[in-house]
Amino acid sequence: MGKADGFLWVTETGANIALLFVLTAVKRYCSFCSHCILNGTLWSCMYTYSPTEKKWYIPSYLDKDELCVVCGDKATGYHYRCITCEGCKGFFRRTIQKNLHPSYSCKYEGKCVIDKVTRNQCQECRFKKCIAVGMATDLVLDDSKRLAKRKLIEENREKRRKDEIQKSLVQKPEPTQEEWELIQVVSEAHVATNAQGSHWKQKRKFLPEDIGQAPIVNAPEGGKVDLEAFSQFTKIITPAITRVVDFAKKLPMFCELPCEDQIILLKGCCMEIMSLRAAVRYDPESETLTLNGEMAVTRGQLKNGGLGVVSDAIFDLGVSLSSFSLDDTEVALLQAVLLMSSDRPGLTSVERIEKCQEGFLLAFEHYINYRKHNIAHFWPKLLMKVTDLRMIGACHASRFLHMKVECPTELFPPLFLEVFED
Name one GO biological process term (predicted). Predict the structure, then answer.
């Protein structure tokens, strides 16, 4: 994502491909540019100048194809009291700033015809024509005045930007009473199923450094599986999965769905929600993630313990989310959005699930407005994390197939196999 002259755009790269994981799952209710994210609409870049072809910004007050009064080239605006092109504007400014006109000399007695072809052949006649058509020397600023003007412009621009942000925060709707009730249900479900809660730092235990460092089984894609680390992870995977299931069962709209759809939704979102819960417990000081609220692991330990490249994606997400300062309610609503993804294959109640997710999204956006985060475009940026989590889920599904080949089946807890096997 980028920025140019106050406009946002998304370049057509792999990031856009990643969006396809959530475009059908997340479809409405957004502000600013999040509507484009959710509907797959990409922004266009607003350029004033192209590196391959000169396309200068033309002010609205100019008539179409209006010409420079000095040389007849295409004009770009009023410069020093006259309508001129960029070339003559720059020539006039340099001449005055550097006091060059006394050194100009015409070889043809000052009778040169100045047009866009000949304008660079005689500086004296070009400058005389600039004066003749009315270009004002007193409007050309010296370096100190130009810098002062530029600074003033930047200060005014920054002030307008802050005013616009403040205005947008004031105008954005906050949750209705009905939405607050929905938010409370989701938040309570998360708190009740989130191991250790806000005390995870005090209660976590670090996995010993010697575990997860000795590769024993070669895994595909150049990864390694440390069976001792893998064994440690399997001890916490079953309660972690159970907590995700309990979270879902505490949501009435989930429990009202057909049993078959409940199973599909849980199998689809389980890794995504577990990854989110680990990512929000990233500790930059120790550079660890805390799994299931109790086991702190390094990037290398998680990678060698079976997750391979998926561990990098989870750690990167943790690093990114650390700047968002999400509260429990925001984490809970993210989980609800992931849970109610209507694009999971095999669902029968697609419209019903989609409507539930739309309700979560609208309440979520309004809660973000209520929180008033001091981060520009916070809502669309947060929605992009849904994309990251969906990617993690897809990568883990592929990784799981490799793990089943490389590791003995008896090492996998039954619930782990039940959730992640097709």
Answer: positive regulation of DNA-templated transcription
